[in-house]
């Protein structure tokens, strides 16, 4: 698929915002569901963008910065894989390959992050010198420069991909042997499952396990649409919050610290 100049500019802007949001974490442009959906929207492939973003979001849910350990770069993975998917022109059949490509791209994003943060070290010393002189305006300017460097970290690779002829990308994807593309699809699916399992491992406890079980059982009913499943999830969340409030307001001596247990003990 050949993109217009206007679409290319919009994609680069989205990539720039995604790079900044990887640091700011305010408007969530770096999240796969947001970045891929926006790229799909501006390129006329909204459905593909939403589908790819949904799969990648399941992977990114298990990514988190813990201490000195930096999580894989969701921004670069989302933007680059969305661009490759759209330029490849394979439609829904290319989603599996795009998901598999996103994983090494996320690791490559860590290398780019390291470079940018290393380049930002002199900015910190310049800000210290400005602070000693009471120059607040210079501090603010240098802070904006540092954030823009993070945006360029994603915008520059995105621009490079956009200027690769679409036919070249398509030929490269089609030249991949079946065993490789199929293996990448399976591997990408496993990464999604591992990401979701990591989220469950962090969230699961004896209070919410019943809701997880109900959700997985109900999801197996093929007649229910995603809207119905979402409505059921909201209903279960409201039930849980109401039970939590009732358990938290209990002043009895049998308070165990578990809201659901306290309610059951009251009976």
TrEMBL record:
One of its GO terms (cellular component) is plasma membrane. This is PTS mannose/fructose/sorbose transporter subunit IIC. It is a multi-pass membrane protein. The lineage of its organism: Bacteria, Pseudomonadati, Pseudomonadota, Gammaproteobacteria, Orbales. It comes from Frischella perrara. GO terms for biological process: phosphoenolpyruvate-dependent sugar phosphotransferase system. The keyword NAD does not apply. The chain crosses the membrane at residues 32-56, 68-89, 95-120, 141-166, 186-204, 211-241. Keywords: Cell membrane, Membrane, Phosphotransferase system, Sugar transport, Transmembrane, Transmembrane helix, Transport. Signal peptide: none annotated. Pfam families: EII-Sor. It comes from the Bacteria. It is found in: Cell membrane.
